[in-house]
Amino acid sequence: MALPPGALTPLPSAVPAPPEAKLELLALAMEKDRRDEPIQPRSEFPPGEHDVLLFFHYDGMSDGIQVTFAWYREGELIDQCSDTWLWGQDDGRDWGEVGWTSYVCTPATGWEPGNYEIRVFIETRLQGVAQYVVTES
User: Fold this and answer.
1) DSSP state for residue 94 in the 8-state scheme
2) CA distance linking residue 76 with residue 49, whole number of Å
3) Domain segments of the chain as ranges
4) At residue 19, does pLDDT exceed 90?
5) Could you tell me the fold of the domain covering 22-134?
6) Burial class of residue 56, CB neighbours in 10 A (0-12, 13-18, 19+)
7) In this predicted structure, what is the pLDDT of residue 85?
8) 83-86 and 99-105 beta bridge pairing
9) What pLDDT does 97 receive?
10) What does each C-alpha distance from 4 to 94, 118, 120, 123 come to in angstroms?
11) What was the pLDDT predicted at 137?
């Protein structure tokens, strides 16, 4: 699976990712508990305005590694949700070398029915794909 166009060029000051760096996709949910764990994981969501959280585990990460979270609806990139950044160098994303957390998207216009997927990359290495459906009301 290809990177979105905006992620094809390495960000300035990106550092090479070690071979052991990895992101493992765990679950999707609409909310999380105090321990940052998913509440009622699911692969189907209702339409409308609400969060969709992608929970993932990470290991071997270090500051400056380029990561990309690319969200798609029916094969079209959702720019508002997609992002490429340097690990540990973005406000609110100083997660360290090993652990778990979540990445959230809430489109301003709400979720429309359709098939969605999230593609996650370290540099150009695909780490996983999470697929879900937003059902009709």
Assistant:
1) -
2) 19
3) 22-134
4) yes
5) Immunoglobulin-like (2.60.40)
6) buried
7) 94
8) unpaired
9) 96
10) 24, 11, 11, 12
11) 74
C-beta atoms surrounding 96 within 10 Å: 12
**The pLDDT value given to residue 6:** 80
Q: How far apart are CA 123 and CA 15, in angstroms?
A: 10
The amino acid sitting at 135 is T
Per-residue pLDDT at 78 exceeds 90: yes
Contact 71, 78 (CB under 8 A): yes
Residues with Cβ within 8 Å of residue 120, at least 6 apart in sequence: 23, 25, 54, 56, 67, 68, 69, 70, 126, 127, 128, 129, 130
Which single residue is written with the structure tokens 């929970």? 55
C-beta separation of 124 from 3 below 8 A: yes
pLDDT digits over 105-133, tens only?
999 999 999 999 999 999 999 999 999 99
In terms of pLDDT, which residue wins out, 8 or 51?
A: 51
Q: What is the β-pairing status of strands 99-105 and 52-59?
A: antiparallel
Cα→Cα distances 135→48, 52, 111, 125, Å: 10, 14, 9, 31
